[in-house]
Amino acid sequence: MKMTRFVFVLILMFLLTACNTNGTDKDEDKSIQNVSYQTSMEEFEPQGVQPGTYGTYNITIDMKEDLTSNIDAQIEIENRSEDAWDEIKLYFIPQSLIEGDYGNQYGSDGSVNINQVMVSNEESTFSSADDGILTIPLNNQIEAGDKTVIDISYSLRPAPNGIRLRRQGGSLFLAQWYPMLPTYQDGKWNIEGYNPKGESYFTTNGSYTVEYQLPQPYYVMTSAHDQNNEPHQSGKVQGDNLKEMYISFLDPRDWYLNTFSANNTDLRMAVKQNAQDMEEEWQKSAQGSFTFFEENIGDYPLDQLDMIQNSGGMEYAGIIEGSSKSSGARANATIIHEIAHQWFYFQVNNDPYYDAWVDEGITEFANTLYQLEIKDNQNEAFQFIPQLNGVSGPDKPANLPLPEYEAVYAKAAYAQPVAKLWRLFENNGGQEAALEFLSTYYNLYQGKQVTTKEFVRFFRAYVENEPEGYLESWLDLN
What we know:
CATH superfamily of the largest domain: Neutral Protease Domain 2
Distance between the termini: 27 Å
Radius of gyration: 22 Å
Low-confidence stretches: 2-24, 385-389
Mean pLDDT: 91
Shape: globular
Structural class: alpha+beta
Number of domains: 3
Helix content: 25-40%
CATH architecture of the largest domain: Orthogonal Bundle
Number of strands: 20
CATH class of the largest domain: Mainly Alpha
């Protein structure tokens, strides 16, 4: 999820107002009948978009008492495109959040400073723009199939009111905190400036090694496998095939760690000391939804999933941020939504700047199918938080670029796919058929990047008699 908790309420409320009492689209009361599906997709060849890059990261973090960290990020970058490169572009979002375009809004009392950039052990010039894009010119081109090593040293002190990247009390939440390698597609670096409206960075899988030295013992939560469940001052984590690396250093005076399992996966949930009374409820939501998704959609490939109940409401590879001081439907729906992102965001990848609905809409559809499993009736499953009257603004397709949405981003990219997909499946196999659809989709595209165009190709191969104008009613197919 890529927005504040307030906007998430809008999302859920739209699901209520966009659906009638049967969970169907209010503007198209006539239900869809007589839809059938392929019984086998063995001859279908999924066509994911090639990333054009691969990054192997070795990062060291030396945190000081004031929560400033000296960081060295070494990235071995492989050119998997067909072009020769004369420059490398990287996301460096701390620059935009703290010193650049959004510094006045989110960067107060934070700091970031790039000390040095090296290319193949030689000092290099660079430009760090206020939109969070770092450009490094190359003296020698990197030919297709070749590699180079970039080494960036910088200091970072997250701001208290930052988005995702922030410090809170004595704890650090490090999201989008390091120089991140974008994809290289269609003959150019596929990179856009930071936009806090939604997810504006897009990375592909890479390999990570992170070593850290801390001024006092902390709980450590990361995208990789964490072997130490106790507060500690130093350590190293490693992970392969991760699309990003998230790290939190949690002050044990404010946090404790609850560990449990779902199927054969270890779940670690960090809970605030003042929220212990909600731990059991959150654990039940996490265990139930994780098991449901794994048994009905497909295997989760890692042996560990971390969760931080800090009101973040965000998904990352191998770790999520959930709610902190609320219980009931709102908090549980957030946890379930973010867990579902481990299937549709981490494993089935997409460019959220151009195709946000491919993870957000499909994830919320998976959440809704789980709600149908645990609620007493269909009405209750669709009525998450009926506090508002919906989202105002014009209807827009679900697959527009991020800047083309205003208030209707949540309405279009989250809620609309749920209402439209459920309208298709409701009277054509229901929950069981919808889960089979998601399972087939997941297992075909795991580890691949999906665009709207490719989703449509899959959909039309799977659904044998698509109603006329169905996809065109909520996707821009031009």
